[in-house]
Structure formats: structure tokens, C-alpha cells
Amino acid sequence: MNYQHLLYLSGAAIIFSAGAFALSMEKVEQSDVAASMHVESLVLGSGCFWGAEKRYEALDGVIDAESGYADGNGFEATYKNITKQSRRFDENNYAEVVKVTYNSNIISAQELLKNYFESHDPTQLNKQGNDIGTQYRSIILTSNDAQKDTALKIKAQYQQLLTNAGYGNIVTVIKPLEGFVAAEEYHQNYLQKNPNGYCPDHSTGVVFEPVPVKTKDNTALLTGKQIVIIDSRDYCPYCEKFKKEVANDYKGTIPLSFRYADQLDGLTIKSATWATPTILFLENGEEVYGRQGYASRETFYKALGAFKLGDSEAYKVAFNAKTDRPYCKEYKIFKNTPDGTFVDKLSGEALFDTRDRFNSGTGWLSFTHPVKNSVTEHEDNSWGMQRIELRSKSTGIHLGHLFPGEGPRGKDRYCINATVLDFVPRDNS
User: Fold this and answer.
1) Among the options 199, 236, 239, 415, which is catalytic?
2) pTM of the entire structure?
3) Greatest CA span in the chain, whole angstroms?
4) CB burial class (10 A; 0-12, 13-18, 19+) of residue 360?
5) What is the pLDDT of residues 12-47, one digit of tens each?
6) DSSP string of 30-51, one letter each residue
7) Is 261 helix (H, G, I), strand (E, B) or coil?
């Protein structure tokens, strides 16, 4: 094969490859066009946009959910402007909305709108729960006539269901979208950016397709002290964070249970339960104290301490760094217990082992060392002394002090208040 012929074949190959590439790109472009034909958007207002945004993003077929403002005029749409007291009842105020971009091949406008109505109370005028003002109005802003027709149809269907359930008229406004302004960046994915808070749920509980509700037997919650955590059926980052950082490690003597807001039959609850998580402290089935929203480990255990210990010496020791009286009754009980461990009175986490206990003759429980990674050390300069304070790692409660080299054979002495401990016999089975 001569050189000239080789050049001819190479040129032909290049021309063929270029043609094949062009054909391939044409197919890709056609495919993209076809896919984009199924991308639609709806702008939905149902109160505060923080929780709504997260809820829509969790739906299959939703491509994006963006918080923003719509259906207002006469001023610049910013969070600061729409939340001014003077505009609380301004009919020209912008509404807090979420622009939902979705693939209609995966989730239809009908399905999306059913979720919309089910997820808030559309009978509330210019409010949702504690959020009051025209910016919190219920509104559907459509992009085409087909969406408008679907919205009107779904609204009529839901009205009948609400009427049957004893609710009033739906006040949701349905109109074409005239403009959307994206909210400030700090509002986007707000629940992810703000780890302390709650997930609002203002739904009526009325649904298009009822599913059997799993009832819960609350008989056990009617006796003694109980802790009940109101959980969310949908994804709630604050609920998950509370479980991970607090509830999953809890081993305390007061039982801790999870319930949904519609699973509280037979209990006397005073707190509103539309926020998740909500922490309820019950005694004999009646709420003693309730707290809405995420609670840090420190916050939870301080509340639990007040609930379990009351105005007692143990509470003062645990949270005010007081000291047991020497030879107190708890010390006399614990100084000669059988084999086992001493645990945090609130969390149930193991702190000290009887195998490391010794009689210091001081009137306080004494140990040569704690259970590994159960205690933290802190500088203590109170009462004109320089000491090492000991706290429980799981709850942060005050335990006592460390005195280096004051134990047997020059070991350390961990001087511990008995009132903040419980004893658990060792299981030798």
C-alpha cells in the first residue's frame, strides 16, 4: 500500500467518524429535547416555605424545590420586607412559596397537588399554625391551563373530604403565575443549614387515599413517669438528629417511647403537637412538661433531671455542682453493693465499676478509675481551691472530683456523689 492510498483511507475514516459523531450528537440533542418536554413547574404556597421545600424535595419525580416569593406588588420582594408588621395583613404582600420543578413522567401535577393539600390546612386564612400574616396564605400559582384545571379539580375533591371530616371551606387561591423571586440564599435548604429547630406539620390529617393507621396501645403510658417523643412520618432532619445524638444512647429508668401526633389516644396532652420532634414528659398519662423542637443532649437531660429528680438533693448535686453530705443514706446503700456497675442516674450510662471501688474512709464513694470514656475532667477553682471536677460524659451532670494519688498504693481517687448514681448488678449468666 502506497503512501497516497493510505492518506485517502485515513481521510475517509475521519469523514466517517465526523458524520457518526454528528449523528450521535443529534440523537442526544433530540433525547434532551424529549426529556425536557416533561419538565414542568408549579409554585405553591402553604405557610412557611422552610418545611414545605424539604417535603417536596423528598418526593420521587421532583427535580428541584426552591423557596421564594410571589403574587405581590408595590415593593421589593425580600424576607425583611414581607415580614414587616405593617404588611402583616397587606393584600399586596408577597406570599412565601416554593417553586417545584418536576418530571411529569414520574410525578403528575395531580399527585403533586394532592400532596400539597394534604400537607397543610387550606381552610386557614392567611395563617398556618402560629405563623400569621398574608405572606403565609394558601395559594397555587400555575404555569398553564392544564395545571389550573387540575388544581381546581383536586381542590373540589379535597373540599368534599374536608367537609365530611367537619372542616370549613378551602381558602386556597388558584391563579396563573405572574412572577417568582427566589428567596435569599440562607432560606434555601434551610432545615439542612439550621440544625436546631423543628419540622412543622399543619396538616389536617384528611387524605385522598386513606391508609390504615397503625394504632398504638398507650396503656403502658398511663402508669408512672414516661417520656414520649412526637416523631414525623415524613423525613424530619431534627427528629433524626435527636435520635442520633440523644435517644439512641438513652438507657435511663424512665421509659422513652416514640409516637406520631395521631397516636396519643388516652393521654392528656397540653402542648401543641404540630412540631416534630416534640418532647413530652408524662406522669400517669398526663403531660407534666412539653418542649417543641430539637433538644440538645444537655437541654434534654436538664429537663429530664427536673422531671425525674424534682427539687431534690440529687438535682442540686447534678446541676448546681453541690456535694452530698458525708455518709448520706445513698452512700450507705452503695458502699457495699454486690458485683456490678454504677450508672448515670439520668442516662443509665455506666460510669464506675464495683471492682474499682475502695473504702476511702471519707464518707463518699471512691474509685481508682471510671469506666473508659464515661467521665470528663474540668478545672474547678471554686471555694478558693484548685480541683479537678468530674462530669458524666453522657449527660454533663456533676459527679464529684478527682484527687490524684490519694487512692490505694498511690492510685488516683475518684470521689463521687452517690445521689447522682444508680446501681446495676452485673449479669453473670
Assistant:
1) 415
2) 0.75
3) 109
4) middle
5) 443 434 444 444 444 444 444 445 558 999 999 999
6) HHHHHHHTTEEEEEEEES-HHH
7) coil
**Residue among 48, 199, 236, 239 flagged as catalytic:** 48
Whether the pLDDT of residue 116 is over 60: the answer is: yes
Residue with C-alpha cell 460524659?
393
Asked about 415 being catalytic, the answer comes back as yes
Task: Give the DSSP letter of residue 42.
Answer: E
Q: How far apart are CA 90 and CA 74, in angstroms?
A: 11
Query: Is residue 48 annotated as a catalytic residue, yes or no?
Result: yes
Beta-carbon contacts of residue 253 (< 8 Å; ≥ 6 apart): 348, 422
Grid coordinates 415593593 are at which residue?
75
Query: Please, what are the domains in the chain?
Result: 39-185+193-200 (3.30.1060.10), 219-309 (3.40.30.10), 318-425 (2.170.150.20)
Cβ contact 368:375 at 8 Å: no
Task: Please give the pLDDT value at position 22.
Answer: 45
CA atoms of 82 and 310, how far apart (whole Å): 45
Residue with cell 478545672: 379
* Grid coordinates given for 96: 412565601
Looking at per-residue pLDDT, the higher value among 122 and 35 belongs to 122
